[in-house]
Amino acid sequence: MLLSQLFGKTQKETPREADTISHRLLLRAGMIEQVASGVYSYLPLAQRIIRSIEAIVRDEMNKAGGQEVTLPVLQPIELWQKSGRDRAFGESLFTLTDRKGQSLVLGPTHEEVFTEMVKRHVQSYRDLPLMLYQIQSKFRDEPRPRGGLLRVREFTMKDLYSFDQDEEGLDQSYQKMARAYQNIYRRSGLNAVMVEADSGAIGGKESHEFILPAESGEDEIVSCTLCGYAANMEKAAAVKSRLEEEEEKPLGEVFTPGKKTIEEVTGFLNLEKEKTLKSVFYNADERLVLAIIRGDYEINETKLKNALKVSRLTLASHEDILRAGIVPGSASPIGLKEILVIADDSVLSGRNFVAGANRPDHHLLNVNCPRDFEADLVLDIARVREGDPCPRCGGNLKISRGIEVGHIFKLGTFISERLGAYFTDASGSQHPIIMGSYGIGIGRLMAAAVEQNHDENGIIWPASIAPYQVYLCPIFAGNTGVSDAAENLYHALEEGGISTLVDDRSESPGVKFNDADLLGLPLRITISPRTIENRCAELKWRDEKSSSLLPLDGLAEKVKSFLQARSTAKSGT
């Protein structure tokens, strides 16, 4: 491919709207273009990368036993109402009405449609197990699209669904997919780790995310270096610190003028945060609830939302709390009526706490659970802290950031029961089909690859997904010797199956080298009057500082062997 004919131009300046490294570099490299908030076009270079990723994904899905289909983006809303996930997805679900008044959904995922299809074709246990997948467009009305392709409203995803007759079969399907995903990332030249995760609106009893470590990532990952425990912050647990045992003291009250926050109260009373109880009010599907936690911890809202089994959870406003007859800043569960109370189990790890007195400028001393108040639920709703003890081995936990590049779920019978997808076993009894769901965002994987592979000059594509393998850079191409040598090498490389981008522009060496670094192809080959004198070309790998001169004779064969060797070494095969 000649660079002068390639659609899409590089940019010197960083676009102002770009807020992550991948966003900036993909825009500057002329690979993507924004159409609307969270909606992007893929230009030719990006399209080649996407196709390479899809080929790897397809190969691994097929090897694992998956069969590819294509299901529609438009889905009847009745399917979502049957599963109840129209409420779970809430406002992120794109809906529309056709000319006949039929309500439809732009699918954010395809569990319901796949289940309906399988329901029509699977009657007996002999039809199972089954794994079906597609690579299809998805739509989610993200409230805050960001990071270019990292959080968008329209995207391409590979989603596979497993259908089994028992838990053992589901476990086998799940492990097959976990191995297939690890193979996909390895073959793509990416370092992804598998962590325990929250199932979110997808549902299910067990799930794992695959995370690419990156400082720009939205996900917080909790991990233990001693035993290998790893989990998304939404799911992560830790051993909570226990306070010194002491006898329960009588309940008392203290005047705390103008002191409302934990920091203000502890400073006024000369206490540690761990000796207080923090009360936080939420609207849970329009119902006011109180979450209470020890003052040295923060509430994990995902854990709280899951505990409440609600679709929507938001912090209650000052006005919401006042309307309920409660005093903001001086509240506690003591004496509250008709308010659902969820307590973190840290409230049981100590005695004689300070909490709100439910009247202005006053707090209670020596509050104890369950002596002074009872919670409707007591469980872990706390965010893990850096250095907390690991729940498995007691080692110190660390927190890092990363980008989710894949998610697998054990759905169980959550969807099949609601949609009536049953099979008949050998004895003639009917059972709901047991399901699993497995997704990879293709465009997000491309963006994550940039986040993990770049330097100050541009992108460094792994060879397995690079848009071209070689950036052929003739310098002073008006020189007949340079032009002829570059053309001959280009044809030899292409005939050898090595995809090559030729920078045939009449630009200075500096401009060409800068664009070569920005585009990030694995190998740059430069031919100039100086190299021609020695019948050589200069080879420089994008991820190395130094370059080397090699003879032009037989160079295409050498380049092919170099690329194969590096691909094998980096993929671990």
Structure description:
The two termini are 30 Å apart. The strands form eight sheets. Strands 3, 7, 8, 9, 10, 11, 12, 21 and 24 form a nine-stranded mixed beta sheet that branches. This protein is an alpha+beta fold. It has 15 helices and 31 strands. The model has no long low-confidence stretch (mean pLDDT 93). The protein folds into three domains: 17-236 and 399-451, BirA Bifunctional Protein, domain 2, CATH 3.30.930.10; 252-379, YbaK/aminoacyl-tRNA synthetase-associated domain (YbaK protein, Alpha-Beta Complex); 468-571, Rossmann fold (3-Layer(aba) Sandwich). Helix 1 (21-28) packs across helix 11 and helix 2 (44-63) packs across helix 11.
Features:
single chain; 573 residues; BirA Bifunctional Protein, domain 2; YbaK protein; Rossmann fold
Largest sheet: 9 strands, mixed
Radius of gyration: 29 Å
Q: CATH superfamily membership of the largest domain, which one?
A: Bira Bifunctional Protein, Domain 2
Give the rounded overall mean pLDDT.
Answer: 93
Helix content: 25-40%
- Which CATH class of the largest domain is shown? Alpha Beta
Outline? globular
Spans with pLDDT under 50 lasting ≥5 residues?
none
Straight-line distance between termini:
30 Å
Give the domain tally.
3
CATH architecture of the largest domain: 2-Layer Sandwich
Note the total helix count. Answer: 15
According to CATH, the fold-level topology of the largest domain is: BirA Bifunctional Protein, domain 2
